[in-house]
Structure formats: structure tokens, C-alpha cells
């Protein structure tokens, strides 16, 4: 009796459709990740005159990336691992890495959607206008910045097995990033805290985004922020992949 084994591409396409369907069914978390940067962008309209549209826009996108990477990706991976979904998927004729690639593709799509929505809100509500090059570079920078938080989330779910502990940890880290970005980054906690915030994962992503929004003002510090961001991503991804277990046993 001949057994027809489906192609890996066919299995991957089915897996990708299933992940997008799951994301749609859990769209409340997606809407929340979308609302956070939009609300911040609207509420910060009054400080555009002092800090500039690039700062407000980049800060809003950066906080949106944190929500997607930590609150979305990390908790979903921890939940599905606890339910044994990954163990069942691994018996399919598809490489293990493809399972994660499918999940990451969904999250990168969410990053694009959030970034575009922030652009639209900034244009029509706050009157922030960018050049075509600025929009394009910012989209690329958002994908690069989003990779930091996705890899950070991967590290958290790799180091911690219990899904409830993962959930509480991501909330704590998210709160720290909000304090770092919204308060420390503005200098309200002193010069030392501001410098630490500038070179934190949040700060480097925000600096990179701000430079992308205004390509003419890209300088050495922006390039350094990009390199540090890539360094954070490689470190978090290495630790997350090395420590990740497909089950909670």
C-alpha cells in the first residue's frame, strides 16, 4: 500500500493558514496591540511641538512592537506548548524550525499592520507628514525592531516553562519598557536613567525608528543604535533557541 506524504511546502502553507486563523480568532489581543500605540500617539499630540513628530511617532511604534513581541507572541507560544500543540505538530513532515517561522510570519504581519495604522493616525490626527523614503525606511526599521522583542519573547519562553509565570514575566518586562520609554527616555528620572534608557532595547529601537522617519538626520548614533539592536536580537535569539523546550516536562 503506497502512502502519499504531502510536500513540506503544502504542510507549511496549511500551518501558516492555521496560525493566521488562530490570530484572527484571538483578535482581541491584536486589537489591544494596535490600540496602545494609537492611543499614545493621540495623547502625545501636545508634545510634538517640543520633542518633534519623529520622537512621538517612533515612541508609539516602539511601544506597539513591545506589545506584539511580548504580550502576543510569547504568551501564545507558552500556551500552545503547555497544551501539547507543538508536540503534535512535530510529527508532521515539516522541519521544527518551520513551525516557529510560521508563528513569526504572523507576528511580522501584525508589525506591518500596526506600523501602517500609526502612520495613518499620525498623518490625519497629528499632522505628521513624512517622505516616501521615510515611510519605507521606518517599515524596515519596525521589522528589525520587532525582531528584538520577538527574540526577547523567545528567550523568556525558553527560560521559563510555566505559562502563567511567562505571562506575569512578560507583563513585568512590558511595564519596565513603558517606564523606560515614556518616563526615563524623556529625562524625568535624571540624566543617568535617560542614558540607560537610550541604550536599552527600547531606546535603541526608538532611536533607529526616529532616524528612519527623518533619513536626512540619520547620524552615527543612529547607526550605532541599529548595530546594538542587531546585537540584542542575536543574543536573545541564541538564548531563546538554545533553552527552548517543545514541552513543559
UniProtKB/TrEMBL annotation:
It holds the Pfam family ABC2_membrane. The chain crosses the membrane at residues 30-48, 54-73, 94-123, 135-160, 172-190, 222-241. This is ABC transporter permease. It is a multi-pass membrane protein. It comes from Pinibacter aurantiacus. Residues 11-202 form the ABC-2 type transporter transmembrane domain. The keyword Ribonucleoprotein does not apply. GO terms for cellular component: membrane. GO terms for molecular function: ABC-type transporter activity. Keywords: Membrane, Transmembrane, Transmembrane helix. InterPro entries: ABC-2_transporter, ABC2_TM. The lineage of its organism: Bacteria, Pseudomonadati, Bacteroidota, Chitinophagia, Chitinophagales. The keyword Membrane applies. Its main location: membrane. It is found in: Membrane. It comes from the Bacteria.
Amino acid at each position: 500500500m503506497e502512502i502519499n506524504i504531502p510536500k513540506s511546502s503544502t504542510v507549511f502553507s496549511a500551518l501558516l493558514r492555521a496560525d493566521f486563523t488562530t490570530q484572527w480568532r484571538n483578535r482581541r489581543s491584536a486589537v489591544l496591540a494596535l490600540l496602545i500605540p494609537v492611543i499614545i500617539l493621540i495623547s502625545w499630540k501636545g508634545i510634538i511641538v517640543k520633542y518633534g513628530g519623529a520622537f512621538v511617532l517612533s515612541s508609539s511604534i516602539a511601544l506597539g512592537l513591545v506589545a506584539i513581541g511580548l504580550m502576543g507572541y510569547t504568551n501564545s507560544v507558552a500556551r500552545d506548548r503547555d497544551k501539547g500543540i507543538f508536540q503534535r505538530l512535530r510529527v508532521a513532515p515539516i522541519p521544527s524550525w518551520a513551525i516557529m517561522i510560521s508563528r513569526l510570519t504572523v507576528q511580522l504581519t501584525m508589525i506591518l499592520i500596526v506600523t501602517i495604522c500609526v502612520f495613518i493616525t499620525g498623518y490625519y490626527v497629528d499632522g505628521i507628514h513624512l517622505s516616501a523614503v521615510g515611510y519605507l525606511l521606518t517599515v524596515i526599521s519596525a521589522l528589525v525592531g520587532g525582531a528584538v522583542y520577538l527574540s526577547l519573547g523567545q528567550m523568556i519562553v525558553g527560560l521559563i516553562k510555566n505559562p502563567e509565570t511567562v505571562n506575569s514575566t512578560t507583563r513585568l518586562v512590558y511595564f519596565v519598557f513603558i517606564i523606560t520609554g515614556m518616563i526615563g527616555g524623556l529625562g524625568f528620572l535624571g540624566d543617568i536613567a535617560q542614558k540607560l534608557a537610550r541604550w536599552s532595547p527600547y531606546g535603541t529601537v526608538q532611536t533607529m525608528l526616529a532616524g528612519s522617519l527623518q533619513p536626512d538626520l540619520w547620524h552615527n548614533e543612529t547607526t550605532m543604535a541599529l548595530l546594538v539592536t542587531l546585537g540584542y536580537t542575536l543574543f536573545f535569539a541564541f538564548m531563546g533557541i538554545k533553552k527552548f523546550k517543545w514541552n513543559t516536562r
